[in-house]
Amino acid sequence: MGGLSSRLGASAVGRPGGAVESRHSCECRKRKRNMGCQCDSDGEEDPDRLLNTPLRKKLKTTSKYIYQTLFLNGENSDIRICALGQEWNLHKVYLCQSGYFSSMFSGSWKESSMTVIELEIPDQNIDTEALQVAFGSLYRDDVLIKPSRVVSILAAACMLQLDGLIQQCGETMKETITVKTVCGYYTSAGTYGLDSVKKECLEWLLNNLMTHQSVELMKELSTGMMEQLVKSPDLFVMQVEMDVYTALKKWTFLQLHPSWNGPVKQLLADADVWIAMEKKELAEGMSFLDTPEGIPFLPVFRHVRLQYVINDLASARIVERDAILPSEWLSAVYKHQWFAMLRTEHDSDTGPQEANKEEFELNSMRCGRKLAKDGDYCWRWTGFNFGFDLLVTYTNRFIVFKRNTLSQPCGGSVSLQPRRHIAYRLRLASFDGSGKLVFSRSTGYQLLALEKDQEYVVMNLDSRLLVFPLFICCNFLYTSPPNRRVDSPEPESSSRSLS
């Protein structure tokens, strides 16, 4: 018997659920309870430990149960909704969360007593998948919306008057604005009344149209959208206003040749070839915008600030060569600029001293610069600026304006007036890979008086916040509007906000 007991004990050790343990196993378990044993033991679990160790088990929530049982399975349904060739077995008590169905089931509408309702879907954006999500949102606490499906779901939510789902669609759109989605989102936001989404799309376009030019985006931009962008004082321009005109040439070419599929670097060359061919077909004295093909683009080109295009000789020659713009437009701008120059030379116009914000936004020069990495930079924007040679410096996190008169060489004439005034607004921005702002600063609209060779610190930056590449955009007004000109300069230099 003793031998049999030994064999039974030996066989029980190391076997899960064994009834007999060796002395070593027992002692090991004691050590594990007291100080944590590192050896492996397959002995029976300690009952106290099992009772005090929490076990994770995910319970089915009420929301999931309702969604699965009532919506997906249609149990205890009291109404059937039919639309787009599909049926849903639903429940009036849940459908009444929708303003659409709440109105339908109340009052004297015939549908209030019907158990089968045929829905007419007038919106082509709505499909069965969007309806599935919209109906399902009535039975659950959370809804996952794919960006590729958000417009269709938004359309269904608006039709069914589901305010919570509409709001969630809006948040999804704001979070996923990219070059691929911005035009579609902008149009849909206008259609379905999401003003905050439309505003964010417009801001994205103003920031990215010129800073991150895209063939795909230019093809999608409608005439109305492009007109709104070009006329805005908030358009982030790189480098000068001539680049806005150049971008419009490329955009016009793509609108008329949507199948063009080359790289963005080749776009301008191909657009110029097309423009030259179009010019050969024009009658004497006509421009492209005078033709039936060009008339739709006329409202957009009208907002190019031509006074800052013809102030550079090379740019003026290109505009004349292209023959896109009507000659009377250019004649009017030449006349305007000539009188502006005479006022600064002979009528003591020292610049804008009382210009208000509205005048500044309408008349200011738009220009910009990209700083690829941190370092020291100094530049000037090309063009005739009425004798105001403005040097811009970025160094040691400072941005400085300097009115250069005698200290630095200048290729053009320089005003020797003791004091000159400018109105300006300087903005800084950095973007992530999708074009969203990750950093921005602005001076707001300011008036500044500078004496000869005087410097002025425009902005002092915190290096911890800077993200490169850094984009700088400036609006400048060098002359005062004729009806608001002030002949006598102010008694002291100053920088102050515009009214």
Automatic annotation (TrEMBL):
Q: Which domain of life is it from?
A: Eukaryota
Coiled coil regions in record: none
Write out the entry's keywords from A to Z: Developmental protein, Differentiation, Nucleus, Spermatogenesis
Q: Where in the cell is it found?
A: Nucleus matrix
The record's section on SMART domains has: BTB
Q: Does the keyword Nucleus apply?
A: yes
The name of this protein is Germ cell-less, spermatogenesis associated
List cellular component terms (GO): nuclear matrix
Provide the BTB domain boundaries.
77-147
The record's Gene Ontology biological-process terms are: germ cell development; spermatogenesis
Cross-referenced InterPro entries, in alphabetical order?
A: BTB/POZ_dom, Gcl-like, SKP1/BTB/POZ_sf
Where it mainly occurs, coarsely classed, is nucleus
Source organism (scientific name) = Lepisosteus oculatus
